[in-house]
Amino acid sequence: MNELMIRCQGISKSYQKGKTVVTPLEKLSFSVAKGEFLALMGPSGSGKTTLLNLLSGIDSPSEGSLIIAETELMGLSRRDLTRWRAKNVGYIFQLYHLVPVLTAFENVELPLLLSQLSKKERHARVRAVLELVGLGDRLHHLPSELSGGQEQRVAIARALVGDPPLLVADEPTGDLDKESANRILGLLGRLSREHGKTIVMVTHDPRAAEAANRTLHLEKGQLCTTV
Ligand SMILES: Nc1ncnc2c1ncn2[C@@H]1O[C@H](COP(=O)(O)OP(=O)(O)OP(=O)(O)O)[C@@H](O)[C@H]1O
């Protein structure tokens, strides 16, 4: 049997909004194997971002059990959750969020600056991940000198540089043309198949979801079907 990366049992998330309680996620249960590439789809407001925030340790569930990379996240303090996230999760955004005044190399190096690695080790890692995403010849370009697809590949390299087992992507191809989107999806597929990364990707695009091994559909905060 495949080893599990994510084991989610009966998790709910509620917020107090004035006098009413809003529950964007209700009693979700599912598992994701190590190295699996999972797509998450659902209409606007169905709870996709809320779930992604729980899976990436940005927020905590209100109830249930959420075990990721062998750690129970339910009930962890903010501080412990932040430490866990730094080690275990790489986050990829729709709009890249690169620092405009830093080169591709410097953007990717940024998350490593607080690590214990020597400068030599740091630089070797940055070079290796930028080569892995096919940007070995763009190390010293600024984001404004790159195409959208290349910027997203820098962002993926930045998410990978700390070698986290889990990558979480929020509409990573939402702002790209078809060809660039396909290249990003191919890269994510390769990261799961060849590098054992577990990937959870939110998308509105059924063609993007086809690149994944499996799709979970959310509807009003609940899982409706597993394809
Ligand atoms: N911090 C919060 N406080 C109160 N309500 C919230 C909060 N975060 C999310 N919600 C509510 O939870 C529901 C789900 O929101 P969420 O952003 O997870 O949906 P989504 O599926 O990602 O939508 P979209 O595709 O539009 O990004 C929405 O009704 C939203 O208003």
UniProtKB/TrEMBL annotation:
Coiled coil: none annotated. SUPFAM superfamilies: P-loop containing nucleoside triphosphate hydrolases (SSF52540). Signal peptide: none annotated. PROSITE patterns: ABC_TRANSPORTER_2. GO terms for cellular component: membrane protein complex; plasma membrane. Keywords: ATP-binding, Nucleotide-binding, Transport. One of its GO terms (molecular function) is ATP binding. It comes from the Bacteria. Pfam families: ABC_tran. Residues 6-227 form the ABC transporter domain. Belongs to the ABC transporter superfamily. Macrolide exporter (TC 3.A.1.122) family. This is Putative ABC transport system ATP-binding protein. The lineage of its organism: Bacteria, Pseudomonadati, Verrucomicrobiota, Verrucomicrobiia, Verrucomicrobiales.
